[in-house]
Design goal:
Radius of gyration: 29 Å
Largest sheet: 2 strands, antiparallel
Number of helices: 13
Strand order of the largest sheet: 1-2
Helix content: over 70%
Number of strands: 2
Structural class: mainly alpha
Amino acid sequence: MHDLKDGERGTGPSRAPRPSLPRRAGRALTPLLWLGPSLVLIAVVVLWPVIEMVRTSLQKISSTGTTLGYRGGGNYTDLFGEDDLIPVVLRTLLWVGGVVVVTMTLSLALGQLLNARFPGRRVVRWAVIVPWAASVLMTALIWRWMLDNYSGIVNRLLLDLHVIDEPVNWLAHPTQAMFWMMWVAVFVSLPFTSFVILAGLQTIPADVYEAARVDGAGPFRTYVGITLPLLRPAVLIASIVNVINVFNSFPIIWAMTGGGPGNKTDTTTTFMYKLAFYDQDVGESGAMAVVNFVLILVMVLLYLRAARWREEIR
């Protein structure tokens, strides 16, 4: 043991000097160098359009885009005074609910098929992608031509099979038109949703199914008790994306019926377009955009709450 020199004290283990305040601040701000670009992108792509949308809904704007002054809640008063608003909103909820439910149901079955092993599976997978790769507008226009009451292939096929006695103008009647537009929306939504379900199926370990077979579980019990619960994240993502996409779907409705006859097949997006370009009321259209945005948020939040509730009661 060394002798302590005069004036030295045994102070135990030495402590590292505490970093200075500027250095501590630099360390705290370092993550912003990595997060900064993402935050800027979110602010420009997401937050700024939302702010502009709300600001537009509070302004009086001419058809040429000139701001004529602040209008406050006047645009919302005019919007809620529209006779067609409630039917349009109810029709939109029916449109979204019907398309998403049918899409998810068919995608669960199609995902199982694509996950199975059979000859030509790769070709089938590529074929399923085709409606997704094609332009939605072109798909809607093709279906409109197929449903034409004079030259459409649908009428020709049904006439040849003696299902109908004379050509039917499918898109002239609101109920029939909504049915066909919902079918086209399901048709273009299936590929993405099916591949999300397929990706979820491929993450489920094979050992889980082996254990279920050893326990004597049949196919139905295995699917309900194992596959569906483990697919919950994939189903959640696919459902939310579909709700947002279908709610904002414009090309299908506009290309097939233009929201007609009258406003009988309008949803909130086509109704919003007509307010801006037919009625020349950009401010009221902005108010409709805000209402549309709120409806989407409410539907997504309700779905997330319901999904969480189902998880809690298990």
